[in-house]
Fold each of these.
Amino acid sequence: MQLSEISLDNWGPFYGKHSIELDVTAASPVVLFRAENGRGKTSLLRAIVWCLYGSMSDQDGTPLDLDRMVNVDALQDGDVKFGVSLRFTHKGAEYVLHRSGSAIEDRPGKVTLSHPAVDLKPAGGQPFPAAQIPEIIDGILSREISDFFFFDGEMLNSFEKRLRDDQSTSQGFVRAQVERALGLPFMTMLASDLDVLQSDLTTNLEIVIRKTQKHAGLSEKYLKAKDELQGVESDLAEIRTQEKAVDKEIADLDAELAKVDQIKDLFFERKNLEDEVAKAETNISDLQAWLARESEKNWWLAAAGTLKAALDDAEAERDALTETERQRYGLEFQIGQVEKQLSSGVCPSCGQPTHDEHEKRAELEKLNAELAEVPSTSIGDVTARLGRLRPFSAGAATIQRIFDLEQDLRRAKVHNDRRKSRISEISERISDNTPDIGSLERNLLDKKDTKRRISNALAVLDEKRASLKSSVQDLGSQIANQPEVDETERRLQKTVSEAQELVAKSYDSFRQSMRENIQATASDLFMRLTTEPDYTGISITDDYLISVLDHDHHQQYMVSAGVNQILTTAFIGALGECSVEEAPLVMDTPMGRLDVGHRSGVLKWVSTFTSQVILFVQSGEYDPDRDAGLLAGKIGREYTINRLTERRSEVKVA
Amino acid sequence: MSDVTSPAVVDDKTNIRTSEATADVLELLVKQGHFVTQLGAFQAAAMLALRKELPAVDIPSAGGLNYNQGSFKQVIDFLTWYVPTPTPARLLEQLGNAGAAYIGEKVRSGGYTLTEIFEIAQPDATA
């Protein structure tokens, strides 16, 4: 199976419709999504899981309500459609799987979902009937083993915790995972069906021989052994039910304890936010004080516009007065020239005698009349006024500074309000989730003790059942061999008996071979990932005890947390690799807690893949400049997830 | 307002009084962080009234604040030549109280910025 495209409609932080190409080649099989926390990496992983299986889990493994994945902004638009489409290829055929629904927010925080729909179409073909879709998808990649392929950092933590748990719990866990990868639950069902078939056949044969009133002893023995077997099986079924209930209680307690870790994270997030709020408040106070000083110093700001207009007016007045002065000066000069001509009889410019005195006197009179009309000016007053108004001319720059400052203040306050709101939200969550850790841990130990007792009882009963089953089968064969039994019935009984034997033998040998296969693959993977030269691999013993091997191939059960993380990653990787031929490996923030050396190991391992790998990483675990080389050119597609608003993100080609 | 010669200040007030309502507004302006002192806020209110040409308001004889006109030297000098007026302290008292009354509602409701309270436009718009 390879994913070609995912389309989202109002999913998580992705408002509206978004399509992301995912198809890659064997030469460059890695699809890399880079994004900081909270941008939507996990929402994309959940979109894939939900689209395939119609349900998804929270990071602590508990089922996640679908309404939490509907885009919040879209919900505010009213009745909203949401959904996810996956285009994928499997064994050369292309399919489109689309899952959708409608949502409406009845009141804040209360979302009602309706019109759930799922649709699977092969390329160019007719849609499959809806009832068949789960079975078809399960056949492509079983839900049972899908978490070996679609996992996040939290799942790694959960696996890691189980592997570090007490010996019997860890052994049980490893065995259960190996059986999941092999598909052993299916074989168990097959064995059970054969048992029923065999029992029915033998019972029928026993009725036949009883009717002949011969072999009464044999009949009696068979019926007694059969009754006893039924009794043991009934006890086994009951104890298995109890075991399931205890398993669930253990899982619930584990989840509760995982929440304690979350609470710790929330506590530290709140503490950081409180520090940030304190710093921001100091900053806000500083900005406010600066603003107050500015408004105090520039007391005239409220009239700055008027003062600027007054300044402009004064400048215009000064210009007009200057022009008037220039006119007056021109007229006075002309009058002076004419008067000189009249008194000397000679033109002062050219030195020629003046002939027309009458004309000159008329000109003088005209000039004097014009001069009389030019208003007398006092430019000094305007100049003085201009001098007084000029200090206010800086008003525009000061006002702009104040506007900028007010904007900074507004932003700082909005950001701080958001921080405070998150603090309140965290406080509410913390106060609602304050489990008694000691009591939870004691309870968990009790349950594990109960589980151990149940496992012991099951082992005893299993042994007894095997012995009884063997007796019943033996007696059944004896009955089948009586001459009164029909030859065809005898052959059928024999065939079923042989099939039972074959399944029983296969069961153990399949599991054994799968264990060895997983051990070899995990060992190889562990050696690629580890930075510790003293280790030589991983061992999974016959009784499913997993450990790291030192340089002398001795099992090491006490290893550091870092080595245990690598052991876990190698184990999950091997389970995936051994369970199906090909499926995309989708990892959400898988390297968050690894050091640089181990991160390099994981990236180098990813670079060896030829099948699709979808990797969601944040900047703390992957730096494009530093780490792209480790993927050795295997990146087929690279995207960044960017925040548009607090509740919206978009995916961009990097 | 075109006569730049400062008139001789005659028979002006030596103290400048505010009404109780004005005093409340001034106190809020300081509390809200818009000004360092109530005196600064009063001057700004007066300048707003000057710009808006707000009519004078009645000042009851009791209550409110009482400032010495010497505290407002810069503004009084300004009003003397800018308006011009021979009684700048009296004018300042009228303008300050009128401006405070004008902005009172916004200040009391809170949540406004300095530029919103004093209706100061961004420079591009004033240009």
Amino acid sequence: MPKETVSLRQAACTFVMFLFGSSVIMGVNSEAGQDSWISLLLAMLMALPIILIYARIMRLYPEMDLFEIVEKVIGKIGGKIVTILMIWYALHLCALVIRDFSEFIKVTVLTETPQLNIMLILILVVVYMSKSGIETMGKWSVIILPVITLVVIFTMILGLERIDPTNLLPIMGHSLGTIAGGAYKIFAFPFAETVVFLCLAGSLRKKDSPYKLFTVATLIATVIFLLVIMRNLLLLGPAVTNAKYYPSYTAVRIINVGDFLVRIEGSTALNFILAGVIKTTVCLVAASKGITRLFGLCNYKHIVFPLGLLAVALGTLLYENIKEAFDFLEIYQIYAIPFQIIIPVFIWILAEIKVRQDKAANGSHSPDSAQTDAAG
Amino acid sequence: MNKKGKCFIIVLLMLFLLCGCQGYRGLDEMVIVTGIAIDKTPENDNYRLTFEIVDLTVPVKEMGLKGQVIESEGKTLFDAVRNAKKRITKKLYFGQAQIIIVSQEIARNEDVGIIIDWFLRDVECRETMCFIISQEETAREMFEIEALTHPLVSTEINNILELDQEVTSTTLCVELYKAFGGLHSEGEELALPVIHKAINNGKTVGETNGMAVFKDNKLVGFLPPNESKYYLFAIDEVKGGILTLSAFGEEHNISLEIFENKTGASFDYKDGKVKVTVKTDTTVYLGEVMRPYAPMDEKEINELEDIAKSELKKNISNSIKKVQSEFGADIYGFGNMIYKKDIKLWKQLAENWEEHFRTLEVEVESEIEIANTASLK
């Protein structure tokens, strides 16, 4: 099949949308209350090294995806095991996100519609997007990201009339442990979830720097998150923000500009769905690519649809109710450690050794390793 | 048939599958609730809810908007809400509800947090509903009044409350999410608006009547309008209203209309004692001088400013002192201010904040500037 490539800008927009994804409705409000924004900044600092490791893996083996890389550095059997693990993680994440979205829609808008219907319609869009390819997804992100950002900024401005700056006080009112705990939660969900992007790494052109992509996109996402957290806290205060499942939705609900611009919460629901589609698509494509590689199929697009249905089926089984969905975040931050930290770090170390060995063996014949040296 | 044609037919067929939504509710299938009154039945301790609904049985175009009242009873609030269906054909819709009126009795005996829960949990209800205490025996009586300027009582009461701040500044519309925030923030007690019945031109109408003071989430007393005004001064919620003064040897002969007010509070901790300073800075118009006309001169205006300052200062201090000694409920949020500005100190004081609040020394400083004397010299 022909190789799909995306430009740096498209990749960055997809990356930001991926981060934005479901975490805006459930992740970024930690129990740290008015100190959530400190948690967020801490989380970003925690995430940067690990994200740079992902970028380094991409740099060491440019234009290859994770499944090809592991086969190269670990060997066939070890590679297959890691591939299976990553397929599971991507598929599970896909199911989680779909479930979170249908849960959100169920609780807030369509309370009487069965969740399965919502999930099926969502997955149809996602499958269509995946079948259209990574390039289409990249182009779509470039158009949609400004829309999402504008909605956040717009709601922030409209809410200015009702904000209470003292809601942010006292700064550091929570213990350092709570704030760091919240930070780790944000680190695991969503920042380190970007490990899934390694599965799509083959689509980034060789001349584009993955370091730049990962850091810039992370910074942009952090700024948007910061705006969201500030908006929710300033409008609602820490008590309501913590009590509500979807504080962003509630925050926009109370906006009322001159009895004219009211009930604009649909805009945030739209935001969640637009970003969620990207996140699900990325996970679905990652899982499909893994399976294609695992069984030596020719084109990942053939198995996108069955995998999508599998994700929906998994999604319906995941939780009994919304409370479980939110409590799972506590387990998730531990469950995700192998996929987000251990496997990538492991691959990175092996890759560094392997690249050096290859270079020593081939002398200066390998253009790959020469380039890596220059960049590294 | 070519591929395009086939696709077109498939898309056309899909339209039938994907359009609309399950659980569709049109305007014809719901009863729009505009206000809710909450009482308790004395016999069996059930909740008795009274809903004001928009009457859609009469043509609105010709007859105008009309309200109707539905009552229902249940073991819990939600139970009572659904029990209303026994009397009407359709389900109640709360998306347009504007006010919740709670009876004095419930507010005195129960934690108001219990009442708020359902309204905040249910997705139909808006977080911006106004939360009100009825000073009458029951809350439902308030829906029997005659609204003077709007056909629906709930909308009338909601509008009265929302605009009150700008015209009289004696009460404050406390929205549901703010009430929840007030219940769950440190060192702060809740105060809610109060309404009661009044006679106007032989008819019973609704009227705001100051604020209700809560302590540990239970109603402990009321601040009448002439005191709640100074409560609003202390918490920086005054946006308008009249200050009356006595000057030139007459009783209450001067009216000052408030144009703008800014209040700031700060605190000082010394030798185990907290001292709070409340500073108000008000711009007013001289709106009325009840004496045979004589042009005002600079000296008189300065004199008026001085009288107004001391009068305002005295009234605010008295109102704070009354709340301190009578209720011991920190509705001013002084504790919250300490919590926000100095969390270490707050941790020491939090345990017996009520005691600290009762003995708190409050200093009030008032600054008043008369901006103009309206259109008379």
